[in-house]
Amino acid sequence: MADEVILLDFWLSPFGSRIRIALAEKGIKYEYIEEDLRKNKSSLLLQMNPVHKKIPVLIHNGKPIAESLIAVQYIDEVWNDKSPLLPSDPYERSHARFWADYVDKKIYEVGRKLYTKKGEEQEAGKKELIEVFKLLEQELGDKTYFGGDKLGFVDIAFIPFYTWFKTYETFGNINIEKECPKILSWAKRCIKIESVSKSLPDQDKVYDFIVEIRKKLGIE
Amino acid sequence: MAKVEGEVQLLGVGGSPFARRVQIALKLKGIEYTYIEENLRDKSDLLLKYNPIHKKVPVLVHNGKPIVESLVILEYIDETWENYPIFPQQPYEKALARFWSRFIDDKILPAISKAAWTVNKDEREKGIEESLQALQFLENELKHKFFGGENISIVDIAASYLAFWLPVIEEAVELKLLTSDKFPKLHKWSQEFINHPIVKENLPPKQGLLGFFKSRYAAISATSK
């Protein structure tokens, strides 16, 4: 029986990008459906994710899986014949889950402060984001990827935010390469991988979109 | 299946629902462990060594290696000790179980906190509305005796806060959220859960918890005047 895989997503979403990378790593064919977040939520989205009403949603043979890190683990467990995304050792897995969670809880929300806030709130956001990156840099250490020799769960969780670096740097007036050079070199290694580069939006397009959002929100 | 050997320690705090989650799982699987009670106002060197990033309990230490974050710990326990599985085995069911556990932690608990730990009427109203909405989703999910079916599973363990801590908080702050008329299934579930033989042995004493929550609420009321 052929698998039917659908990804309900928005091009900009770092969370959707994670699922795109995982599907590409596993060589899974899928239908991509773009949800236009500027319009009213589609009936498909409301049906497939009634609890959060958010993208991304992975739909496998009609069954929806919401929350990107849950979807990535699901992909790893179902298509377990190639390209493992998580380590096999339980301790290493718990380590990967911890750091993926850390990325999930910290980067998007803190990063947002850099392009939506001003003054003290923005300053606090800048400081926190650099601290978060430095901690991740420490965790990376001298490894090629967070997953070791190959792309793993934490790499997949984190790399989509690379496309937001220009946005963070421009509005936040920070220099990520200067503060965390290892993070930059890690990111550049990741985007050389085809499944990553073809799954991520263009950094300039992300930046232009945020410029538009700021105009709409009246931020100067 | 070879028994996994090794020394297991759990750093926790008696009243913490997150630490109790781990204890329940360890007891369900019959895993021997040493419990170390932490004082969160005077964190031990051990805690700071094992959880330098968040400096929180619970921490599970297995053969000297620490695992933190209760839901991550529960996945580790289930993968390491395969008897009495607490996660479903089938990938889709497992994904759903992860989803609902996260929902409890990311949506239900913060909404309840918002409703409980405020004297501001508007904030409380907002918190109550969010809590009721979130609880309704969970109510709709409950189809058997437990979220896991006939046996306790990860979602039941994650929801233990609702079965035991929430009623104590409701009493302490004069709030009614998880009532039997609004949430008949969840209410029935909570009675089944706290009377489960293993769970019963692993809950903190109610009086102590009530006193703790009452003084917390009194402190908030005092500073708001």
Automatic annotation (TrEMBL), chain A:
The keyword Transferase applies. One of its GO terms (biological process) is glutathione metabolic process. GO terms for cellular component: cytoplasm. Residues 3-83 form the GST N-terminal domain. It catalyses: RX + glutathione = an S-substituted glutathione + a halide anion + H(+). Gene3D superfamilies: 1.20.1050.10, Glutaredoxin (3.40.30.10). It comes from the Eukaryota. It is an enzyme of class 2 (transferase). Its EC number is 2.5.1.18. Keywords: Transferase. Residues 89-217 form the GST C-terminal domain. GO terms for molecular function: glutathione transferase activity. PANTHER family: GLUTATHIONE S-TRANSFERASE U19, GLUTATHIONE S-TRANSFERASE, GST, SUPERFAMILY, GST DOMAIN CONTAINING. Belongs to the GST superfamily. This is glutathione transferase. It comes from Trifolium subterraneum (Subterranean clover).
TrEMBL record, chain B:
Its EC number is 2.5.1.18. One of its GO terms (molecular function) is glutathione transferase activity. InterPro entries: Glutathione-S-Trfase_C-like (IPR010987), Glutathione-S-Trfase_C_sf (IPR036282), Glutathione_S-Trfase (IPR040079), Glutathione_S-Trfase_N (IPR004045), GST_C (IPR004046), GST_C_Tau (IPR045074), Omega/Tau-like (IPR045073), Thioredoxin-like_sf (IPR036249). GO terms for biological process: glutathione metabolic process. Keywords: Transferase. CDD domains: GST_C_Tau, GST_N_Tau. It catalyses: RX + glutathione = an S-substituted glutathione + a halide anion + H(+). Residues 6-85 form the GST N-terminal domain. It is an enzyme of class 2 (transferase). Residues 90-217 form the GST C-terminal domain. GO terms for cellular component: cytoplasm. Belongs to the GST superfamily. This is glutathione transferase. It comes from Trifolium subterraneum (Subterranean clover).
